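Supplementary material to the annual report.
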Amino acid sequence: MIEIKGLAKTFRVHQKEPGLKGSVRALFRRKWIEKHALRGVDFNVSEGEIVGLVGANGAGKTTLVKIAAGIIHPSGGSVRVLGHVPFARENEFRRQIALIMGQKAQLWWDLPASDCFLLLREIYQVPKKAFDERLAFLAATLGVEAHLKVQVRRLSLGERMKMELIAALLHEPRVVFLDEPTIGLDLTAQKAIRKFLLEYRAVRRPAMILTSHYMEDIERLCERIVILREGGVVYDGPLRDVAGLARHKIVTARLSGASAAVSAMKPGDDAARHFAGLGAGRSEVLEATEDTLKIKARQEEAPAVAAALLTQLTGASLAVVDLNIEREDIGTVIEAMIRGGAVGARA
Amino acid sequence: MRLWLHVLSLELRKIVTYRVDFWFRFVGTLLANVVVAYFLWSAVFARTGATAIRGFTFEALILYYVLAPLAENVARPVDGGAIAEEIYSGGLTKFLVYPASFFRFKYVAHVAGAAMAIVQLAFVLGGYALWHGIPAEVPLTFWTVALGVGFALCAGILNYLIGAAVDQVAFWADRVWSLNVMVMFITRILGGSLLPLAMFPENLQTVVKWTPFPYLIAFPVQAMMGQIRLADLPQAFLVMGLWCGALLLANRALWKAGSLKYTGVGI
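Predicted assembly:
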């Protein structure tokens, strides 16, 4: 449903020196630089699939979504959504897509949400019966029936976001672009929106692209992720496989008793400083308290760390009562991939 | 069509919602215009001792200044800059996603403003006629007012196209407020809002008649005051038609080039 090939976008932005002097100078002479927001991005999204687009600020996520929705023009490459070129903005294309931007209100600020929805019914030519049914379903699922007649600008952020979701889905789009849909929302609202999106996906099977800085959104909603770094794809594959790309394991020991050796450890210490037989720079203390010692170690070093904990910590005054070795959580691995510090093989 | 009627109804509701702004904007412009004109022309007539200047008696001139902001409000109901603001703030994004024309949305907002301006015109003109009376030398009737309003509505299309072209400069310049203010001043000067066109030198009048500006204010006012002859209409519509055509082409070209520049960023 979404085919992206060699997509590139370069912005020309002007740079201004700080201060009044810089501002005055910029009036006469401006320094322009080229910013490559996307560099040859390729990926596809199929029906019923939610693809998580992950990356640091400025990695190109929103730019990609805007190009795929037909808002901005690409500098190179091609995009086809439902067989259409988005930037041509044919009505047939626009009737089948929706764009939700968490950072930007799309509803009419001065109108009650219900008036906005009626207007959208006319824009998308949704038959009255279908409109009434969909609105009732969406409002009930998101729990906002009581706020439909309130002016949009008077709604809380969470309520507004739910209204934005309803507005975007009333015409039952086949492709949905979600750009940080849970930004700034409290945990309850985030959960409600995630649950709603999963239900919607199960029933309507749209193709969705989701960008979010919240790992929880990605982990709960996406089976597949695309990681962008500096405008390029560094990973495109199943989310579950990301765990396999972890370079580190976390060794956690639960302790009983007191030990001067543990008290001397501080987060960030090289574990080799405290345990004999470990390679320098291969493991790091994450946490050292009275009852817990947590060490991050390279995959191959983890057994040696575990053995060292068991043999070297256990003594007259201290016992290891539990030992656990686990993979780094997906969020940490993704974060490392975003920064460029972890395995970045493209699936 | 149903969509645009719906949008029109929403826009009308929006205008009425902010009724303080609705009346202040209007009353402010009207009072400023009439009070300044009254004192200025009182002094001119007193000093020269004339009973009429360029065909206008003092009473007819004051009526002209009452009608000028009313006609201007019908032809130019929305302050310039609405389209530029959408481009600058990134608000244009939502319109690009909808399967409907952005420019029609904005034009319908313009029509809603014009409809409210006609209501204001009826109130003010009716009130003025009852309170002060219409000068005997001015052949103002219901039909001349209807002709003037109809003409102002046509001129509104021209005004909308001028505003849209100026606003689209925001694709390159971000902020075009100053440009809009300049266009507003030029419109008011050459449109006959500050001074009736009859007061201009003959040569200038001939040139100005080939620009779009007199048709936005002076022409509708003169039509209401019964000063337009049938013979004047063909040239008026020809000039307006030519300008509309040229502005349509300019708007299309600006949109084609400007939307390539649009980044959708904003506050």
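Residues 343-347 of chain A have pLDDT under 50 and may be disordered.
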